[in-house]
Amino acid sequence: MITKSDKRWAFSGHVVLGFIAVCSVAPFILLIIASFTDEAASLRNGYSFTPEKWSKAAYEYILLQWDTIGRAYMITIFITVVGTFSGVMMAGMLGYSLAQKDLPGRNIITFLIMFTMLFNGGLTATYIVYTQVFHIKNTIFGLLVPNLLLNAFSIVLFRNYFEFTMEKALLEAARIDGASEMRTFWSIVLPLSLPMIATVGLMSALMYWNDWINGIYYLSPNSKMQSIQTLLNRINEDIRFLQQNSTVFVPGDAIPSTTVRMAIAVVGILPILLLYPFFQKWFVRGVATGAVKG
Hints:
By secondary structure, the protein is an all-alpha fold. About 70% of the residues lie in helices and about 0% in strands.
């Protein structure tokens, strides 16, 4: 029976969680409003939920500069899709292999993977390997390769999920019927691992979509393969990047620099904001299942 005390605690919990939710959503609302604020009003009064004057100049400027910004946006989408698919498949196959207790060298491979969660060679060694050994400088691989299998936590999630959650009798039945390990993995294991695929896929997609540091390291400033996040970072560092490459006449020779940054940020995060609610259920289930040893 629900008592008055339980109701009060439930009400208090809803109030606290509601306040936290408002605090989480408010910055995104302010970002969107700031992108529709007049440049002069924004510089004069700062960002506000109730701007003095509204303007679409920032988005009009983005549309007129679509050769630069649009290309960066398409590159980000391509890198996110290809990188997420490749990363999930590599982490899934390695996690499935490590889940097999009869795998030769299983403990050594597991140790090496866990070791990378604590130590790495540092930025200098990483840069030298990628640029002088793999030669990814100023190529699309400079945005793709450094993030592949970068997070050993994804492999651990897959391994725990396969080892402690996957029904062993089902896998043994497939092997008795003559299915190879690859056939078992593709036809049985993957279809039953949707929560984990969604979890690791979402983390990987967010990593690729928000990545800007690899563009700084492995792409030259005038490269045409910059992602939207790298471009936004360069704009924040020096707004003259757009001014010098602009062929658009802006009244008063005033490019809406402040509001353009906000508008590009909105364009950059909009797909994630739209897709995340659909994957949140799988994300929570996958983390809860794969991170806990059964």
